[in-house]
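Obj.: predict assembly geometry.
Materials: sequence records (below).
Method: joint structure prediction, all chains together.
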Amino acid sequence: GENVEQHPSTLSVQEGDSAVIKCTYSDSASNYFPWYKQELGKGPQLIIDIRSNVGEKKDQRIAVTLNKTAKHFSLHITETQPEDSAVYFCAEDVRDSSYKLIFGSGTRLLVRP
Amino acid sequence: DAGVIQSPRHEVTEMGQEVTLRCKPISGHDYLFWYRQTMMRGLELLIYFNNNVPIDDSGMPEDRFSAKMPNASFSTLKIQPSEPRDSAVYFCASSPTNRGYNTEAFFGQGTRLTVV
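Observations (raw structure tokens):
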């Protein structure tokens, strides 16, 4: 069945440093891997996504890498800023006969000024 | 568009009472999802609809939970009777389809439910 493991659960970095969050999925049929950012009191918001036919995608300070063989995907944030502090969720979607987005357990990122 | 609109933002109710959460998806989106968020279990998919039809309700915890989508612009999640363990933040999200490919899910602000 679908399952996404996310690590670490909390991450504290100094402003300007990089942050890396990793996820592992179990279903080899998964083909879509989005990352969501959730700020306090708000709903999750998509920040970047990657499809299974791509190994890496970058958007300014954030990047995502995907290793389909190992069933790993990671979020990389460079030059972190205090406004990056939030909870980040990875997710996977299995497009078989249904459309079901399954989320990881979340990582609370704190960027210390 | 104002985004996905949920109401109420906060709900406090007594155990045993009926609770109805409401959602207005983004116009033109044909997928609608209900999620529940708790510290212990994270973001759980409860049910989702495609073109107003329930497709997968395997995440609905018990018969006390029911969801409807009478038209493309409105959905409800009902809990009857409510219990303290139902306390959580409930999110509604909507998504368009794009030639069969997965696309972004847009979340509402959530409804924080407290059952005392």
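Conclusions so far: The longest strand of chain A covers residues 86-95.
To do: check interface contacts against the pulldown list.
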